[in-house]
Amino acid sequence: MSLKDFFNKKRKYATIPSDREQPAQMNSGVMTKCPQCRSIIYTKELKKHKMVCISCGHHLAMNAHDRIHFLLDEETFKEYDPEMSSSDPLDFPEYKEKLEKDRQKTGLNEAVVTGEGYVSDCPVVLAVMDKRFRMGSMGSGAGEKISRAIESALEKQRPFIMFSASGGARMQEGVLSLMQMAKTSAALKRMDEAGLLYISMMTDPTTGGVSASFASLGDYNFAEPKAMIGFAGRRVIEETIREELPEDFQTAEFLLQHGHLDRVIPRDQLKQELSTILDLHHCKETAEGGE
């Protein structure tokens, strides 16, 4: 066999997939690959570390119920409106099918889970977005759930904690999705007038209409490390202003440096940080007095 024939010969041995070829289902099985350092980690071990990479500290996506579980005191969570979901007001092509597919995939009926519970014995109301459901997009169902949670916090005189993770307003619902920006912001205005505490925690990503409404209205605006936060996409902005943006543009660290955030808080420090803030605002005493 000539050297040319040797190299042209079809290989019959298996190859290890490249990063681009790596099967996506790895992240939902026994092992998970860190998208930043490419380390392969046992999923159970990763969950013990709150979905933070053991090798490089990268914060991987966390679903809503896991986030609630690690934040709230054990067995204190009471969910609000678990059956609520968006309809298909515009009869948008294939929208119903996509909603049903996400319901089956995630076990959720909407892109946000709301409810009440306790953080270090302090009663709170919270809403946690889950980007597995329509990329956390805000439709009429998600906006209604968040607004109801805020109204419950107002009624019960409790702090409200919001975890954002969203690609923005849900295009399949048109202007009805955009209306949720005003509705949630108006509910937060009523909370502010009542002197109640609102803590906003932005996770990766927090973009579009969500970043331009309730996500940026906290008494405290926090974010997880390296979370992408912004309204329009990087490419759109660069083409509009005809300038090249900094490499770290729209990261949590960039926004902190430019005064948009109060702090960037690693996930494993979050509960302690929130507990300290709630204590500073005398939330336990306020709740006990109100109840």
TrEMBL record:
Assembly mode: Acetyl-CoA carboxylase is a heterohexamer composed of biotin carboxyl carrier protein (AccB), biotin carboxylase (AccC) and two subunits each of ACCase subunit alpha (AccA) and ACCase subunit beta (AccD).
Protein keywords: ATP-binding, Cytoplasm, Fatty acid biosynthesis, Fatty acid metabolism, Lipid biosynthesis, Lipid metabolism, Metal-binding, Nucleotide-binding, Transferase, Zinc, Zinc-finger
Annotated InterPro entries: AcCoA_carboxyl_beta, Acetyl_CoA_COase_Trfase_b_su, ClpP/crotonase-like_dom_sf, COA_CT_N, Znf-ACC
Pathway: Lipid metabolism; malonyl-CoA biosynthesis; malonyl-CoA from acetyl-CoA: step 1/1
GO cellular component: acetyl-CoA carboxylase complex
EC number: 2.1.3.15
Annotated zinc fingers (C4-type), start-end: 34-56
Protein name: Acetyl-coenzyme A carboxylase carboxyl transferase subunit beta
Family annotation (Pfam families): Carboxyl_trans, Zn_ribbon_ACC
Catalysed reactions, as listed in the record: N(6)-carboxybiotinyl-L-lysyl-[protein] + acetyl-CoA = N(6)-biotinyl-L-lysyl-[protein] + malonyl-CoA
Membership in a protein family: Belongs to the AccD/PCCB family.
Record-level GO BP terms: fatty acid biosynthetic process; malonyl-CoA biosynthetic process
Species of the source: Salibacterium qingdaonense
GO molecular function, one term: zinc ion binding
Localization of this protein: Cytoplasm
HAMAP family referenced in this protein's UniProt entry, alphabetically: AcetylCoA_CT_beta
Residues reported to bind Zn(2+): 34, 37, 53, 56
Tagged with keyword Thylakoid: no
Role: Component of the acetyl coenzyme A carboxylase (ACC) complex. Biotin carboxylase (BC) catalyzes the carboxylation of biotin on its carrier protein (BCCP) and then the CO(2) group is transferred by the transcarboxylase to acetyl-CoA to form malonyl-CoA.
The keyword Translocase belongs to this UniProt entry's keyword annotation: no
CoA carboxyltransferase N-terminal domain: residues covered: 30-291
Classification lineage: Bacteria, Bacillati, Bacillota, Bacilli, Bacillales
Cofactor remark: Binds 1 zinc ion per subunit.
Named cofactor requirement(s): Zn(2+)
PANTHER family per UniProt: ACETYL-COENZYME A CARBOXYLASE CARBOXYL TRANSFERASE SUBUNIT BETA, CHLOROPLASTIC
